[in-house]
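User: Once you have settled down, look closely at the record that follows, taking as long as you need, and be ready to discuss the fold:
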Amino acid sequence: MTLLIPKYDLRIKIQENEVNVLCIENPDAYSYIIKNLWQQVNGEDGEMILSEGEKELKISKDMELITNPFAVDCNDKKILNKVYIELAENFKENYMMEMSDINTNIVNVLDELMSDFSYPLASDIEMDPIGLFKLYRIQMDMAKEDYVSYLLEYMKLKHMICKVNVFVIVDLRSYMDDIVIEELYKNLFYEKIFLIVISGHQYENPIECEKTLILDKDLCIIKSYD
């Protein structure tokens, strides 16, 4: 898999068991790349190209940009909407009869309740599984105390449920020490999740699995190693 940033002729090869570290020392280039990634991840047009072999992939489906690891939410709309769809399919296949009986009882109670008033009231008797899941607030049950574990679980859920394969995290190593970072990398490798870390400066002690690409202040490309 490859991420191409044409404006700066940057080509990032995304491979298993490697973390790509993109060091952007030029402030204008840094803001341009973050801004454009954000736009494309959110479905807007942009110049960056994500591809696998000859096939161009849709960045809004295959990538996610995390600018603040503390702000991720395992119950965001994209995750829950996908989960609700899966639950609804299972619901219709295996639980329609039981829920139909329950729904009939609820409708009868509502009819009696509304008959006590002179208002022209009506109800929608059609059973909507997704509406039921929202009503009872079905959601992921995960504690947020350990933000590193929560971040990992978030990435795993996005990968498993929403099929996001590549995560881009801004300044990740500013939040964690090397031991925690290495454990995070190990878990991502195990889950076959790809990671690109964007930083405004080069890390002094790169971790062995990190592959660093530098765009310096003069917009020259420097590779730490191939």
